[in-house]
Design goal:
With 495 residues, the chain is mainly alpha-helical. It has 25 helices and no strands. It has a domain of 116 residues. The protein is extended, with a radius of gyration of 35 Å.
Length: 495
């Protein structure tokens, strides 16, 4: 006769919904390989000899799954399938635990660590496979699938899961490079079909970038005979587009076609796609790097030079890097000067260093400064003058523009070199106009201007003189006077 626990269990099972029973079995199977084998045996009507210690306890926070118990499992298809079913149950259980935690930080961190440990059972840090491709690849696909499920359920998950996604995509690349690309054609097609099934599944809904990044990483499985499968799968995704994501999906489809034929080594078709879509900057960049990798440098240069003006800065950087890689110093110097005069002042030091190494800087510098003054904005030119410690020239710029924001910006750098000249300029252009403003923040800014000058100059005498003058000017204006009292306290501290 059944004991009380068995009676309670039978009653609960009879009242439970199928989904609840399924989750219970999955959790039980993930707790221990022997438990999984026991459940599987019962499912298959295999007689079992029970010897179970009912006193065990499981702590969800500390349980360590061992989904791939052997580093060299049997490659028999049935054994592989059993391992896959086991891993599927383990992943499902871990997801349920994270879900029950409402995706809090601990739950997500445990899930990320679980995925990392699981993938570590597939391939080690050196890229060496620890299990057959027939097991490792489906496991990696399951990880991707379940990561996307997490994204769909938890709006904050990209912040914690992005590295984990990159990890599994890296594992997929390693799997294919190490083993998948060397499989017989029919085997490669079988695993490609698995990937395409996931690629087209709803788990990537609203995650198009991840969808296409994933399929890009399995292109090593594609052959000339199966290339059309990939294109058709992507076309089906495009047909599901809405008004909001149509352009995005078209762009992803275009880049996938280009990447596909590059992966196949079919440069002719890839070139046709690139030339027909050269108005797309991502296509242009991709083709630029292809040309570089094939040492077709003249074509790459032509491509980099023929871009719209609004893209000029990024392409100038790509072209500069190529000149540097090729050791074409004359071309690099000419391009850097052009960039500098076109407001790309970040290249100034690189340009200068190249000319210093050629002992040409002293000859070029005077004329360059004149050109920069006419071509650059006041702040771009001022930054270069400050960098070169051209303080007299910088002071002339401050006098020329009579700009309080500009004087505030360069005060710390220029003051030690032109103290006597800066005092009247600061008084006339910064302090007096600020004291005449009526904006709500005017008193606070005046206080800040006085405090900054005191901090930089340590000239308490001059600042005291200004404070006394301003107290007279601003008599009766409480907000200004309160700020001046704060500065007075600072002066007393310095003295």
């Amino acid at each position: 006769m059944a004991n009380n626990s068995q009676q309670e269990l039978l009653k609960t099972i009879n009242q439970a919904k199928p989904e609840k029973l399924k989750n219970v079995l999955l959790k039980m199977g993930s707790l221990d390989p022997d438990m999984a084998a026991l459940i599987l045996a019962i499912f298959n009507d295999i007689p079992v000899d029970l010897d179970i210690d009912a006193g065990f306890e499981v702590d969800h926070d500390t349980v360590e799954a061992d989904p791939l118990p052997s580093t060299n499992p049997d490659t028999d298809p049935q054994a592989i399938e059993e391992e896959i079913r086991h891993v599927r149950g383990v992943i499902s259980n871990q997801l349920q635990i994270a879900r029950e935690s409402d995706w809090d930080w601990n739950g997500m961190n445990n899930l990320v660590n679980f995925f990392s440990d699981l993938l570590g059972e597939v391939i080690d840090d050196t890229g060496e496979l620890k299990v057959p491709f027939a097991l490792g690849f489906p496991v990696a696909l399951m990880v991707v699938q379940n990561q996307m499920k997490v994204f769909s359920e938890d709006s904050l998950s990209p912040m914690t899961l992005e590295d984990s996604v990159n990890n599994v995509l890296g594992v997929i690349i390693d799997l294919i490079n190490e083993s998948g690309s060397h499989l017989p054609v029919n085997e490669r097609e079988k695993y490609l079909d698995q990937a395409l099934k996931l690629f087209g599944s709803p788990v990537f809904k609203d995650l198009e970038a991840f969808r296409y990044e994933f399929i890009d990483d399995v292109l090593g499985l594609v052959t000339q005979q199966t290339a059309n499968k990939v294109i058709k799968a992507s076309e089906r995704i495009m047909k599901q587009s809405t008004l909001w994501d149509e352009d995005q999906r078209k762009k992803h489809h275009l880049m996938l076609r280009l990447h596909l034929y590059l992966a196949l080594g079919d440069l002719g078709v890839a070139q046709e796609i690139a030339i027909a879509n050269m108005d797309d900057d991502d296509v242009r960049k991709q083709w630029f790097f292809v040309l570089k990798s094939r040492h077709r440098y003249d074509e790459a240069k032509e491509l980099a030079l023929d871009v719209p003006r609004y893209l000029r800065k990024e392409w100038d950087e790509l072209l500069s890097n190529m000149y540097q890689e090729l050791g074409e110093t004359d071309e690099l110097i000419a391009l850097l000067r052009k960039r500098l005069l076109n407001h790309q002042t970040a290249v100034y030091q690189q340009y200068k260093q190249l000319l210093v190494e050629r002992h040409e800087w002293q000859r070029v510098y005077p004329d360059l400064l004149k050109q920069l003054e006419t071509k650059l904005s006041r702040y771009e030119y001022g930054d270069i003058l400050a960098l070169e410690r051209e303080y007299s020239k910088l002071f002339e710029q401050l006098k020329k523009y009579q700009s309080a924001p500009m004087i505030r910006n360069y005060l710390r750098q220029i003051y030690p070199a032109v103290k006597n000249k800066m005092i009247p300029l600061y008084h006339d252009v910064v302090l007096i106009p600020q004291s005449q403003k009526t904006a709500a923040n005017a008193p606070k800014q005046l206080e800040k201007d006085l405090s900054n000058f005191l901090e930089i100059s340590h000239d308490a005498t001059t600042v005291q003189k200004w404070v006394d003058e301003l107290k007279q000017r601003l008599s009766g204006q409480t907000s200004f006077l309160e700020g001046l009292e704060i500065v007075q306290t600072q002066i007393n501290t310095v003295v």
